[in-house]
Amino acid sequence: MLLSLFASLLAVVHAQNGFDGGPYFTSPETYPSPNITGAGGWEAALAKANAFLAQLNLTEKAYMVTGADGACVGTIAPIARLNFSGLCLQDGPAAIRQADLASAFPAGLTAAATWDKALIYQRGIAMAEEFRGKGSHIALGPVVGPLGRHALGGRNWEGFSPDPYLTGMAAASTVEAMQSVGVQATIKHFIGNEQEIRRNPTTTPNGTTVAAVTSNIDDRTMHELYLWPFADTVKAGVASVMCSYQRINQTYGCQNSKTQNGLLKGELGFQGYVMSDWGATHASIETVLGGLDMDMPGSLSFSATGTDRPSFFGGNLTALVQNGTIPETRLDDMVRRIMTPYYYLGQDQGFPTVDPSTEAISNARSNRYQLPIVPARDVRANHAGLIRVIGSAGTVLLKNTNNTLPLDKPANIAVFGNDAPDVTNGLAIVGNSSIGTLMLGGGSGTARATYVVSPLSALLNKATQDGTRVQYVTDNSEIARGNLGGLYPLPDVCLVFLKTYAGEGNDRSLFTLDYNSTAVMSQITSVCSNTVVVTHSVGINTMPWADNPNVTAILAAHLPGQESGSSIVDILYGAVNPSGKLPYTIARNESDYNAPILNLTGTPDSYNGDAWQSDFTEGLMIDYRHFDNAGIEPLFEFGHGLSYSTFSLQDLTVQAVSGNTPSAPSATDQVTPGGNPALWETVIAASVTVSNTGDVAGATVVQLYLSMPQDSVPSGTPTKVLRGFEKVMLQPGESSTVQLPLRRRDVSYWDVVSQEWLIPSGEFSISVGFSSRDLQANGTVSLISS
Ligand SMILES: *[C@@H]1O[C@H](CO)[C@@H](O)[C@H](O)[C@H]1NC(C)=O
Ligand SMILES: *[C@@H]1O[C@H](CO)[C@@H](O)[C@H](O)[C@H]1NC(C)=O
Ligand SMILES: *[C@@H]1O[C@H](CO)[C@@H](O)[C@H](O)[C@H]1NC(C)=O
Ligand SMILES: *[C@@H]1O[C@H](CO)[C@@H](O)[C@H](O)[C@H]1NC(C)=O
Ligand SMILES: *[C@@H]1O[C@H](CO)[C@@H](O)[C@H](O)[C@H]1NC(C)=O
Ligand SMILES: *[C@@H]1O[C@H](CO)[C@@H](O)[C@H](O)[C@H]1NC(C)=O
Ligand SMILES: *[C@@H]1O[C@H](CO)[C@@H](O)[C@H](O)[C@H]1NC(C)=O
Ligand SMILES: *[C@@H]1O[C@H](CO)[C@@H](O)[C@H](O)[C@H]1NC(C)=O
Ligand SMILES: *[C@@H]1O[C@H](CO)[C@@H](O)[C@H](O)[C@H]1NC(C)=O
Ligand SMILES: *[C@@H]1O[C@H](CO)[C@@H](O)[C@H](O)[C@H]1NC(C)=O
Ligand SMILES: *[C@@H]1O[C@H](CO)[C@@H](O)[C@H](O)[C@H]1NC(C)=O
Ligand SMILES: *[C@@H]1O[C@H](CO)[C@@H](O)[C@H](O)[C@H]1NC(C)=O
């Protein structure tokens, strides 16, 4: 009764807003919202959450799910009589952003480019130690949405890679690491949050509402691409999921019952809570019944003079429960879901207080200065060393002709480009800067560094040790118009530092590097026959100068965080042998990329209420899958990255673990976090031996790609997909055998009819190599005879 009443309410709301959408891409109503069960080891914590809940009155229950005023980016208010000191939520995926004396870590993109599970885990530990040290219970990271459907997506760098397997591994490892320190991780943004433009609704000049962009995603693509890494983190026990601003199949992320009740809490068995992105809550009833558990930043004011701001939760929730529109059992489940991870991670057992400098830092960000200065707790420990290591491990050597790198005490070098020198617009990234190195992108995913080692300062330091002469020009406009600073003598090597910025709220419009990079390169290469290019970038760039023979080396150094200059000098001079691999594809031409961002700005449809329809018609074919499918030769392929050494592979073995593998996973009584546990069982065992055949110690990444038997899978299946990788450090002449297990989900496709992961019959091809197009050993295996 209640639900049918709700359904008709919802229909009215939809019709009013013109959200009834097309007949195809709509989100099926999926109610009720599943209750937490404690499955997966959270039973004892759930019992404690129940005991806590039993002591709350209705007002307090509403407080527990509604953000309040506080020094943190988000706050759940304390309840003093229960000795509950509240919850502090802080940005973001690469650092505790709103803090003094904290570290600026490498971005998720850089972590992905290391392909190093151990380093990714250590990064998670170190970041979480800083959140904890500052008294932040909940870290608003890591990011797996955007996944990277669009090459120019403005937030791709906050996440890892457009490959769901690599992203899932990196994100799950980050979640495990962070939560091992007792900090709750938040996986975001759920789901289909692939572009920034029109991510939120807006109001036209005449006052009508223009709905946010809707990501229209078919069921198979949802499972095999966008939901895949979320599933990995649910399996890893992530405490929180942040729902996204934009719509999915016409329905806003935070009230989409299909994605939240159906996919997340139902199919994946998620036991934690769904938190709204800041201001992404657009309703009371639809969100609560649609699976949202916490409204952020909420509205409650606890200052003596303050009054609550309007909120869809808070007092509205109390009223809706009191008159029976929302069952109190649903509110109880919301509170249980919020408190169970708190107890599970022992946050009731003494947690640091919120750092007293937090509010002052928050004010300083908007140039409201507070005196006297409040001393901050220094949480940086020895993390600078790890940051430096990850910065170089996430640097990809794309080209190195004539072994121009590593440098060996050159007599005379020149440094060019606006990415080389010290930052000139402050250490808390507040936007793009025309001159100054780029260590991270902007927005909620950035950091407030206490220092940034710029490439130029690190190179000058190294040059002083080596007795090298350094000439430099760092103003790209000057270089672009041919002012190379009156070079004399001509340098042995020209090092060019180029950058590409992006920040939350906007997408990129250029594929090339920013600030006249093409003109800059043309001027430098016309003079310098040994030009080494280093990019600091939020992601994919085209490189129209890459084949110029005067460009002898290219390094994609991504976003390395505060030790940027140290990390790149380690690579340039060979103190560290490069081992990063591209976590995306670099195309020859912009037009080689598919799935452009939907941008109606400036068109008549821009203010058409429901025109922002983004149909994910490319399905599974993003990034390298698209290049393979369309037969396009990339400039630098997914997985590519050179070393100062050479490596070879031998003795690939591939075998089915069982003689009889059923196509569908066995049914399960209880869904545990991650979904049916059978999906995670190993069904194929592969191993291969890798050798360092050069004369320098170094690491490489063994990569496994799987091709499904094309005759027995639905159309739209990619030619091959990454399904295993391992980074291996080897001395010259050393060999090591690597195990690459494939789990049931890895070798299945999502069958939309049976709503199940199925293993196809016939022969799988398994290729192992050092990139997606350098496949040196092949094998086949069948699990089900055709
Ligand atoms: C979106 O619509 C497509 C097409 O009908 C359907 O396959 C898919 O399951 C829907 N997904 C959601 C989350 O509503
Ligand atoms: C959740 O638990 C309550 C009891 O607390 C029950 O009334 C409700 O039906 C349950 N909901 C679901 C979806 O199982
Ligand atoms: C609920 O508890 C709060 C104290 O936490 C108190 O201020 C409020 O009056 C209580 N409400 C009811 C209805 O008992
Ligand atoms: C309830 O929500 C409506 C819509 O946002 C808002 O106008 C109103 O102020 C809210 N009430 C409370 C008590 O927050
Ligand atoms: C319940 O309360 C809400 C909020 O005050 C109100 O909008 C709604 O009309 C009420 N519903 C019923 C059935 O009384
Ligand atoms: C209150 O909580 C703190 C930890 O936050 C704990 O150390 C203390 O023992 C608790 N006090 C009571 C009375 O439970
Ligand atoms: C979107 O379109 C407008 C108008 O053409 C343009 O100014 C803007 O740069 C575009 N944005 C992006 C990110 O491409
Ligand atoms: C490109 O260089 C020209 C001068 O050659 C300058 O006017 C322009 O501002 C530069 N553009 C950027 C984006 O730096
Ligand atoms: C390469 O550099 C040399 C100067 O050393 C110059 O003469 C030549 O034109 C350059 N070639 C290209 C393709 O820029
Ligand atoms: C690189 O090697 C090629 C052929 O071995 C040679 O022609 C070219 O001059 C070399 N370039 C540099 C910068 O040494
Ligand atoms: C409001 O303006 C938009 C375009 O800006 C137009 O499409 C729409 O019809 C207008 N609505 C009303 C009610 O005037
Ligand atoms: C392995 O297979 C791939 C195609 O899947 C092919 O490009 C490659 O040459 C093969 N390698 C060997 C060593 O046969």
TrEMBL record:
Signal peptide: 1-15
Protein location: Secreted
Listed InterPro entries: Cellulose_deg_GH3, Fn3-like, GH, Glyco_hydro_3_C, Glyco_hydro_3_C_sf, Glyco_hydro_3_N, Glyco_hydro_3_N_sf, Ig-like_fold
Domain Fibronectin type III-like: 700-772
Main localization of the protein described in the UniProt heading: secreted
Record keywords, A-Z: Carbohydrate metabolism, Glycoprotein, Glycosidase, Hydrolase, Polysaccharide degradation, Secreted, Signal
Catalytic reaction annotation: Hydrolysis of terminal, non-reducing beta-D-glucosyl residues with release of beta-D-glucose
EC number: 3.2.1.21
Major enzyme class: hydrolase
Highest taxon of source: Eukaryota
Pathway: Glycan metabolism; cellulose degradation
Family listed: Belongs to the glycosyl hydrolase 3 family.
Summary of the function given for this chain in its UniProt record: Beta-glucosidases are one of a number of cellulolytic enzymes involved in the degradation of cellulosic biomass. Catalyzes the last step releasing glucose from the inhibitory cellobiose.
Name this protein carries in UniProt: Probable beta-glucosidase G
Organism whose genome encodes this protein: Knufia obscura
